[in-house]
Amino acid sequence: MSQANVEKLQSTESPRINIAHHLKKYNLFILLLVFIAIGTMLSSKFLSVQNFLNLLQQSAVVGIVSLGMTFVILIAGIDLSVGSVLALSGMVLSILLKSGINIFFAILLALLSGALLGLVNGFITTKLKVPAFISTLAMMVAARGLALLTTDGTPIQGLPPSIRILGGNVFNRIPVSGLLWIVLTIISILVLRYTTFGRKLYAIGGSPQSAHLSGIEVNRYITATFVICGTLSALGGIVLASWLTVGQPTAGSGIELDAIAAVVLGGTSLFGGVGGVGGTFVGVLLMSIITNIFNLLGLSSYYQSILMGAIIVLALVLNRFILKKQ
User: Which architecture does CATH list for 17-325?
Assistant: First the structure.
C-alpha cells in the first residue's frame, strides 16, 4: 500500500477512534446532562440551587459509603457488609450519646467500630483465605444482628441536639453531609492518583500475583481497603443518625447494592484495577437525579426500581459497546 493510501486510511479512521474514545471517557457526564435536561423540562425548579442542595444531602450517605466500596472494588474485592456496619455504627453513636458521652468522643468510637469490622473482614479474606463475597456476607448478617441486639430492635430516640453536628446545615442552607462527601471525594482522588498507596491498589487490582512479585505486600493493602470501607460505612451511619436524629438498627438495608451500582456505573471495573472515585461521585449523583425525576413523574417505587435497574444495565452495555468499538 502506498504512503498516500496509508495516510488517507489513518485520516478516515482517526476521527472515529477519537469519537469512540471521548464517548467512552465522557459518556457518564453525557448521561448526567441528558437526565438534567429531562428534569429541567419536567420542572422549572429542578435546576434551582435549593434542589441541588437537597440532592446533595440525600446522596451524601450513599456517596460516602460508595467511596469505601470503590477502594475495595479497585482491588477486585467486594464488601456486602457496608449497610450492616452503617447501622451498627449509628447505634454505637446513639447509645454513647444517650449515656452522656461527649459527641466527638462518641463519633471517634463509632468510627473505630466500623474500622474494626473492616479489619475483621480483611483478616478473614486474606489470612483465612475466605472469598470476600462470603466473608462480608457473613459480616453483613452478624453486624445487622448485633445492631438489632443492642436495643432489641428498638430505635433510639430523644438524642441530644449535639448529634446534629453532621446532619445540619451551614448558613442554614448548605448541608454539612454534602460538603463532607465532596471533601472526602477530593481526598480519595488525590490518594488514588498521586500516592504510592493508590498506585499499589491499582497494581493489586490489575494482577495480585504480579503485584506480589514486584514486592507489594498484597494482603496488607487488601486489609487496608476493607478498613477504609468499614470506616467510611461507619461515617455514613453517623451522618444518617445525625440527619435523622434517631439511632435506627434497620438503617442502611440494601445500601450495599446502591453503592455497588454507583461504583460500577461510575466506570470502576468489578475485575479491579480500573476506575476511580470521581466516576463514583458522578454515578451517585446520576442515580439521585434519576430518582428525583421518577418522583416528579409520580412513579411508584416498584416501577422506579425496575427502571433504575434497566438504566444501569443499559449504561454498562453502552460502556462495553464503545470500548469494543474503540
Answer: Orthogonal Bundle (1.10)
